[in-house]
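Page 42, continued from yesterday. The earlier attempt failed because a stray header line got pasted into the input along with the sequence. Redoing it now with the clean sequence only.
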Amino acid sequence: MIDLAGFWHLTDAEGGFPAPMPLPGDGISALRDAGLIPDPYVGRNEYDLRWICERDWVATRTFEAEETDAELVIEMLDTVAKVTINGVSVLRADSMFRTHRVDASGALRQGENTITIHFASPVAEATARAQAQPFPVPFQRDNCPLPHGNMLRKPEFDFGWDWNIALAPFGVYGAIRLEPKVARVADLIVEQVHGNGTVSVTVTARTDRAADGTPVTFAMADQEVQAEVQNGVAMATIEVDAPDLWWPVGQGAQPLYTLTVALPGHSTTRRIGLRDIALITAPDDTGSGFAFHINGRPVFMKGANWIPADALGSAITPDTVRDLLQSAVDANMNMIRVWGGGRYEPDWFYDICDELGLMVWHDFMFACHLYPSDDAFLAEVDAEVRAQVARLNHHACIALWCGDNELLGALTWYEESRANRDTYLVAYDRLNRTIETALRATAPTAHWWPSSPSPGPMRFGDAWHDDRSGDMHFWSVWHEGRDFDHYRDVSPRFCSEFGFQSYPSMDVIRRFADPGDFNIAAPVMESHQKNAGGNARIAETMFRYFRFPVDFENFVYLSQVQQGLAIKTAVTHWRSLKPHCMGTLIWQLNDTWPVCSWSSLDHGGGWKLLHHMAQAFYAPMHVSAVPGPDGIALRAINDTAQRTTLAVEAEAVDMSGARRTLTTGTKVVSPDAAVTLLTLPADALRDDEILLFTWEAPDGTHGQDHFAPRPYKAYDLQPAAVQHSATQAGDGWDITLRADALALYVAVEADQPGRFSGNAITLLPGQPVTLHFTPDTLDASPHFVLRDLHSATYNT
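This time it went through. Structure tokens are written below.
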């Protein structure tokens, strides 16, 4: 094997802009690192760099070869490209979503060889393909300043989105190598049948160049089974008695068995988690449910939507991605949705999810546009789906394959499809059936969902506003400007998208903006807001709920408090409906670059206040305040595997921090359904009071939350004089917080990168709270800044 990773030589097609280009990597990062262009993430540089994607580019390197009978293998080649070796064309690539494996024997020679990748302009190529369509195939012009990304099998967010930079980069993001042409195991399809204390694991090995009769050995769980190749395929079943089952995080352990499949001269391994997954969509009195059962146990899915970890492929590494996924787990999430406008991730991504116990809802890579339906495009889609499902089907984390993101809605978004719905509906059906057919042909037992959102197979209703069946995307609060209470007006069976924007944290803003730009109407700040009207919507909502912040930095803080309050309102209410609702996936977990967005994690992995709040409202044991016409119900949710007894105390707290006990309650709470612990009458609180409630289980699990019946601006918050003392402790710093009056959403910021054990907390006089800060570097001496709702919104 000859590894072709390393430094290549990059130029444009005319020989200009010479730069070293590391592969794997992207060309824009190479140009930036060579000093030929400025950092596209800083200021408004993006707009002056879009010329890059309008040009063709060439990457070249030399290598030595002793053998000439070899295959060229390239993973994640982005995207329309021609590869030559010694001037001989060996590959014309058309998709980033397939691994390219081609015979290079006719081009290789002993000694020195030259390999060249010719990257075609994605904008020019996409435009040409759009013009060749028999009828217009519209794309999301509002989100995508670079046109026709729906024509290419390339990540569509590369052309812009309402949270992404629009640069349409090029490069190679996986392995690039030459392999000897030998018999090999190409793919493994793994199917599990769970019985009473046993699991039958059937493995189908698809081979290349293996003659009929070639022996294949299958080894797993201290067993070894042999089979012979027939027509390129060998199959064997391994029976595992008393298996160690794999569970989602929070439900049990994540043991992984090593599966080795070998034929003479070649072997491959996979890590297999033994688990039984069922998607339950049975009809009921409301419509039809949507719930995942793992190993026979209903599991409420708590999580977020995943978008690529960076807009530029060079910045995406296993370490940076593991940090983001670990943050999801640390916030009590157990599922992520790999969104259809991004990419199929590398193998190591799913390995990490297997290890962490993060379930994966996986869209196929189609989002928000309409798509071609000609035979050539559908043939490429068919090959893509078969390749990706064959690559990933064995992973314990994969819970569901979904046909697309929001293509059912897209049929109504465009003038062309509204005017001629039949044509575009047929085109969609051809695409969707191609995906489903390829999935079922590759992995017959995989779980399939046609689209997100969708009421279900062969149903084309409005799953943005109809909450009776299937999964729902609920965007009325953000896009329609409805108040946060509107989250309580719907009762989704599973909400796979909902969100509210905030600004990135100040340490992120300082990476792309100067102090002179610290104004939401400044051009630099507006260029880092890609959702039309987003800044105005954030500010308008602040007027609805809060007194306006005193300066820009407190505006940023308050935007994050507001985001957290919005999502907390939705999640706590929908969790209180369990088992009617069995999942909430926040839009979105992460950011691709520093930008105003719906993310709970900043670009770079820092925790916004929403992520800290999610750690609390996604806790396995939680109590939700649910207002209604009869008062405020306190409903308990138990997502553990065991019944428990929960005791709750409700208190009224005024703005000085004075407290009075209202009532207490104790009930047994099973994992099966949320339980009302007690209901406070509508007149239980005075106008100057909010509700404070605490809960505790016999094992010491406890929590606290508050609920304000009126907008915070209606309360006369008192100066709380929040103070802190910091002492070095272990791997970081202990920070003890004190307040003289009720202090809401107390947040601590550090001038060093790192992580706080908690944030956005409620402080009461006489009840100090200690947080821990772990800096990224051991020699850090951080300075801490405190914020709270009063100091952020009252001039003193």
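Notes: The mean pLDDT is 97.
Reminder to self: strip header lines before submitting.
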